[in-house]
Amino acid sequence: MRCSKSAPIAIAGASRPLSDAVLTVDQMRAAEQAAMDAGTGEWELMQRAGEGAAQWIARMAAGRAVTVLCGPGNNGGDGYVIAESLARRGNAVQVVAPVEPGSETSSKARRHCTAQVATEADRFEPVVVDCLFGYGLSRTVEGEFSKLLEKLKESDCFKIAIDVPSVVASDSGEVLGPLAEYDLTLALGAWKRAHFLMPAMAAMGARRLVPIGLDLPRDAACLAARPKFSAPPSDSHKYSRGLLAIVAGAMPGAPLMAAEAAMRAGAGYVKLLSEHSHPDAPAELVLEEGQLAKALDDDRIDALLVGPGLGRDNTARDRLGEVLATGNACVLDADALHLLDRDLLGGKHASRIVATPHEGELAKLCETFGVTAQGKMDRARALSESTGLIILAKGPDTILAGNGNVRFFRQGSTWLSTAGTGDVLAGIVASRLAHHGEPLRAAEEGVWLQHEAARICGPAFTAGDLAKAVDRAVATFL
């Protein structure tokens, strides 16, 4: 089977800025240690972090008084540096520190802080900065810290979290205590997993990165890169831009929805392979009725989409098996994910297959393939490693895993939480896959296009509205 050449081939992960790196706790500690081993002292790193964060806080405070909550570790030390920096700028500042600093560097930060320090907060100022605990939290927050965070949760002040909110486990996004709704979260040095994982990310508000001069690992997970499209070359035709075949099944609506999106996402030719008629199909969609095996025997096909509306009976399983037997690049969604197993997958061409499970489908795939990892990101990565598939685990926290890569995405519109939007995403990804033949890249582009189409639609759209906005989303990336 051929691959369309109408778009330049890009290597996944190449030329990505290190500011897009998303680190684990261990990777962050290693990056900080590497900086100190190279001659940058811990005090200097704390100064960079605190001063950089203070610049953002001063803008948000706009002259208002600020309360800084400081814990015993280096995150609390950052808080003392922030408080001193804000005081120099003229802000009224109070520091609340339930316990004394527990490290030499955080103790030094407190000694250099001229702001008044109290162990309890009678009241909060209009702006509150949470520096109680940083990215290394691993146990439930209790006692005086929990009470302070409960009070913060109930307050109507402007809330800013430093690095991650103080009850968040950085690697998993797990919530380990009373979690306030923050207006702004300032990531220090590098993004952490929790910045892009539910449930933590839902409470972080706007997220901004404060660089502190670390050399970040190039093999780390990262944010998915914004795509850049171009108009078709002057010698383009429908086949050079990619032919996508969508395999229909028992239910007509879902594959038609996917086709509506696919026709607008870049492929030059989209057709629906079906064994029954579709009177509601748009005129632009090519319908090919009849025996599936004959329809699949077409070497012009660049990619296949199967799953939306497929059904889960033996006939549906047979159709999925015929698709996988072609060896074509393909996208598996919806019912196909409930039918897929090792016998069908067969270990062949898996790296050319994008699976797009939601949370329940991801759990089903993990059960089928014996994956026992905990947490969405680790399950997606382990499933990809076990099967060879490209896994696009969709949802409010969408994660892409494949070929040893992990990509995170910023959250899209919450209005995407409506029936049929997954079919639209599958159609977009499949269209991009037919266009250039790169599964990981197609999945990245698909999420960006779906999110942009949702932005264009505004509130309260249907999946049909979303599909019809995909062409305008493409225009955003030209």
Please give the largest β-sheet: 12 strands, mixed
Question: Could you name the CATH homologous superfamily of the largest domain?
Answer: Ribokinase
Uncertain segments: 1-15
Rg from alpha-carbon coordinates: 25 Å
Top CATH class of the largest domain:
Alpha Beta
Shape: elongated
Give the strand tally.
19
**What percent strand?**
15-25%
What is the assembly state of the chains in this entry?
A: single chain
Fraction of residues in helix: 25-40%
- The helix count comes to 16
Secondary-structure blueprint:
Blueprint: E1 21-23, H1 25-37, H2 42-61, E2 66-70, H3 74-89, E3 93-96, H4 104-111, E4 116-118, E5 127-131, H5 143-154, E6 158-162, E7 184-188, E8 191-192, E9 206-210, E10 221-223, E11 243-247, H6 253-262, E12 269-274, E13 286-289, H7 292-296, E14 303-306, H8 314-325, E15 329-332, H9 335-339, H10 342-345, E16 353-355, H11 359-368, H12 376-387, E17 390-393, E18 399-402, E19 405-408, H13 421-436, H14 439-457, H15 463-468, H16 470-476
Q: How would you describe this structure to a colleague?
A:
It is a single chain. The chain has 16 helices and 19 strands. Strand 18 and strand 19 (about 405-410) form a beta hairpin. Helices cover about 35% and strands about 15% of the residues. The chain folds into two domains: about 25-220, YjeF N-terminal domain (Rossmann fold, 3-Layer(aba) Sandwich); about 245-475, 3-Layer(aba) Sandwich (UDP-N-acetylmuramoyl-L-alanine:D-glutamate ligase). The radius of gyration is 25 Å and the shape is elongated. The protein has about 475 residues and is of the alpha/beta class. It has a twelve-stranded mixed sheet, sandwiched between helices. Strands 4-3-2-5-6-7-9 form a seven-stranded parallel sheet, covered by helices on one side. The chain has helices at about 25-35, 40-60, 75-90, 105-110, 145-155, 255-260, 290-295, 315-325, 335-340, 340-345, 360-370, 375-385, 420-435, 440-455, 465-470, 470-475, and strands spanning about 20-25, 65-70, 95, 115-120, 125-130, 160, 185-190, 190, 205-210, 220-225, 245, 270-275, 285-290, 305, 330, 355, 390-395, 400, 405-410. Mean pLDDT is about 95; it is low at about 1-15.
